[in-house]
Amino acid sequence: MNALVIGAGMAGAACAELLSQAGHQVSVFDQSTHIGGRLYTLHLDWADIDLGAQYFTAKDALFQKQIDKWHQDGVIQQWNESPWMTDNYNSRPSPDHQIRYIGFKNAQAPVKHLLQSIPVYLQQHVEYVRFKQNKWYVDLTNHSQAGPFDTLVLAIPLPQAQKLFEAELLSGLNLPEVEVKPTHTVAVQLDEPIKTDLKWSFVKERAIDWLGQTNVKPNRHCKNQTWLMHFSEGATQMYQYNGDLSFVKLALLQLSQIFSTQRVGECINHFNFYHPYARIFSKTLGQNFYWDKTLRVGFCGDWCFSGRVEGAYLSGRHLAKTILNYH
To answer: pLDDT per residue over 50-60, tens digit each?
Structure first.
């Protein structure tokens, strides 16, 4: 079998690796410049910034087994810093017994490890996928075509995947309805550090729902104290047309309010990132992947299973097992 996986995030990597291990020919396309999807560390001159998922956890035995292998191979590490909780009233320690993991040196390390022996083609902008004479072909933006492929896997957010299909073919797939919520992420670096024991915090009842110092994670570096914030869905939608500087100002305002007893320094560096599919969930699918055995096309991702990194891995793995049952 010759399979194409579109999407080099956790779900696509988990699916591709298992198909490859079974002896099949697998290629991975991704439109980005990097492997990892939403597990990605941006290395700037002034800070290392984890743009997507800040950590991952394990509940399922299959994913825990993979985590143990990654840990043994030096791909990931535990992140033992306890969380805080911040709301409109105060910030306070909120310790738990959850074991959290992060990629070693960069967030995408475990995804790269899964794909280490598989051909990955980056900056491949797929415009359309076509099913002709019982084979799959993809049209790329550079007016080239790739194929034929026996099996097609789409490991990208469902709204993106649906745009690649012709209307007639799409209507026959009976894909689930999804709920999409965007998130705007801002990193601000201050000329003077805020003196606080708060390293990272869940946040509720405010314009942000995540707050953390970027260098609180092992092997993440910054020149000056840098705070990362994820804005809530409401704040993201309210300010998204006002430009990046409006989010920077709002981020500094959040710091001033949360650390109201201190002077918050000047912002000397900042970075903005908008993720339109940061929170995406299936409303109707009763399983953690979608597979059409007639067309040999599958869909997987965290959007159809828990919305977590673990869900992305399990979605890709379970889809691959189902594909192998037909090959």
So the answer is: 999 999 999 99
Kind and range of the H or E element at 313? helix 309-325
Chain-centroid distance, C-alpha 82: 22
pLDDT of residue 225: 97
Do β-strands 120-121 and 25-29 pair in parallel, antiparallel, or remain unpaired? parallel
Q: Reduced to 3 DSSP states, what percent helix, strand and coil does the chain have, rounded to the nearest 5? A: 25, 35, 40
Helix (H, G, I), strand (E, B) or coil at 297: strand
Give helix then strand counts, H and E, for the chain.
8, 20
187 to 36, 50, 216, 260: CA distances (angstroms):
20, 10, 14, 19
Q: How many CA atoms lie within 13 A of 147 on its CB side?
A: 22
Q: Residue 38: phi, psi to the nearest 5?
A: -85, 0
pLDDT of residue 280: 85
CA 26, chain centre distance (Å): 22
DSSP readout, 209-228? Answer: EEEEEGGGSTT--BSS-EEE
User: Tokens at residue 44, please?
Assistant: 């700037």
Angle, in degrees to the nearest 10, between helices 309-325 and 10-21: 30
Q: Is the pLDDT of residue 299 over 90?
A: yes
pLDDT of residue 282 exceeding 90: no
Q: Distance between CA atoms of 114 and 89, rounded to whole angstroms?
A: 43
Residue range 8-33: mean pLDDT, rounded: 98
Contacts of the segment 173-176: beta carbons below 8 A, 24+ positions apart: 173/290, 173/292, 173/295, 173/297, 175/290, 175/299, 176/282, 176/283, 176/284, 176/285, 176/290, 176/304
| β 178-190/25-29 pair status | unpaired
The 3-state DSSP class for residue 135 equals: strand
